Each structure stands twice: as structure tokens, then as C-alpha cells.
Amino acid sequence: DQQVKQNSPSLSVQEGRISILNCDYTNSMFDYFLWYKKYPAEGPTFLISISSIKDKNEDGRFTVFLNKSAKHLSLHIVPSQPGDSAVYFCAASGGFRRGSQGNLIFGKGTKLSVKP
Amino acid sequence: DARVTQTPRHKVTEMGQEVTMRCQPILGHNTVFWYRQTMMQGLELLAYFRNRAPLDDSGMPKDRFSAEMPDATLATLKIQPSEPRDSAVYFCASGSVTLGRRTDTQYFGPGTRLTVL
User: Fold this and answer.
1) What would the mean pLDDT of A39-46 be, rounded to a whole number?
2) Nearest 5 degrees, angle CA B38-CA B44-CA B45?
3) N or C: which terminus of chain B has fewer CB atoms within 10 Å of its end residue's CB?
4) Which CATH number does the domain A4-115 belong to among 2.60.40.10, 1.20.1440.230, 1.10.10.10, 3.40.50.200?
């Protein structure tokens, strides 16, 4: 029973174009969402997050959009660069008011390849 | 430059041997997580601690895995006896959680790649 799903295992994009990575969740109790990037032989690194009280959060070339009614979030990278090639994990948290202890539920990741 | 450290980075062992993985969380972080990454399951949460107390270890096979925090600067994950199916990358992550302040961001170490032959 996957509560956080990344349905595309891989994505290939041309340098300079937009990369859109998608994530769906099933648990309506989730109220905080994060994206992590992972290079081979390294641990995941935090990229950007969004609280459920917002529908958009931007940080430089990275923007995360949240659609609560659809239980869907997406990460946009504009413009994409070859150095962005990595595996991207979506993660969700349940919220302290709802009994969460801060643990994250991760999707299985999407491998992004940005071609020069 | 605060970061989570893990040792060893690589471990090759034979089935039946004991394996101990160590993690030093970021100074000041009060929550430590252990994850396992496999091709099939992605990132699985094995156990986590807050203020050194175990909060949840339901993700761990109890008969062979154990996790402890002897002190605030060291977390350990032990497998005894190890089996080939335990081969995976094990990540430690730390974070800071305090009452009234919501911070779910976790910071990961580089991982321990375990191969059990």
C-alpha cells in the first residue's frame, strides 16, 4: 500500500527545457511535502518543501506546486541543466497535530536525465 | 558545514556474520532515522529515535536487526546474523523536532553499502 507514488521511474529532458516531476499521495492527513535529490553513491539531499497551506513554493530554478484536491504535487525545474541529472524523491509527512512524529513517507523516485 | 556521517561506507561480509553500521547525526538534532534503500522497495524506514529514545522500529525485522543510540552523537544499526537479502544501502538521517516548531526536513548521510555474500 503505497501512500506516496511517483509513477514515472525515469524522465529525459533536453538542457534548457523544463523538467516536470510528478508525485501523487493517497493519505489526506499529509500536510507537509518535500523533494529530495539523490546522486549515485550519495545520500538524498533536501531540495525544496511545501506546506499544505500553500499551493506553490519557489526557490531559484525549482518550484513545487501542490494540488490538495487532486492529492498531487509536482516539481518544476526551469531551465534544466545537466547537473540536475539525479534521482528525485517525493516525500510526505503527516503533521504533528495529527499524531505524526516527523517521519517521512517516500516515493520510489524518478530518475531525471538532462541531455546537453 | 554540518553533515551526517556514516561508517563504514562499504561493507562486504559473509552470511551469518554480524554487521554494525554507525551514524553521527548533525550536532543539535534530536531525531535520528535509519532507512534502507533497495531497487524494489525504494527508501524504507527501519527505525527512528527522538532524544535517544526509540519511537518506532516497526520497519525492522526484529529477530536480526537492532538499533540503538548509546549517546546523542552516535546511532548504531546492527544485523546479527546477516543474510544475503540484507544487501542494500543503509542511510541514516537526522532532523530537529521541537514542540511548537514544525521541522520535518531530514538530512541524510552518505550511506553504508552492505553486501552479504
Assistant:
1) 92
2) 145
3) N
4) 2.60.40.10
- Bond before B25 cis per omega within 30 degrees: no
| Closest chain B residue to A92, measured at CA | B104
Q: Which fold does the domain B5-97 belong to in CATH?
A: Immunoglobulin-like (2.60.40)
CB pairs A-B closer than 8 Å: 57
Enter the C-alpha cell of residue B83: 543474510
The answer to whether the Cα torsion of B35, A30, A95, A90 is positive or negative is positive
Question: How far, rounded to the nearest angstrom, does the alpha carbon of residue A86 sit from its chain's CA centroid?
Answer: 12
Q: Where are the domains of chain B?
A: 5-97
pLDDT, tens only, A47-100: 999 988 999 999 999 999 999 999 999 999 999 999 999 999 999 987 554 445
Residue B49 has phi, psi (to 5 degrees) of -125, 145
Q: Which site among B104, B108, B113, B114 would you substitute to test the A interface, given the most A Cβ atoms closer than 10 Å to its Cβ?
A: B104
Q: What's the Cα-to-Cα distance from B88 to each of A76, B19, B35, B42, B114, rounded to whole Å?
A: 30, 13, 10, 10, 5
Q: Is A49 in the B-facing interface, judged by CB distances under 8 Å?
A: yes
Structural domain boundaries in chain A: 4-115
Count of CB atoms situated within 10 Å of the CB of A3: 15
Among the ranges given (A3-7, A75-79, B37-41), the one the predictor scored with the smallest mean pLDDT: B37-41
B84: its cell numbers: 544475503
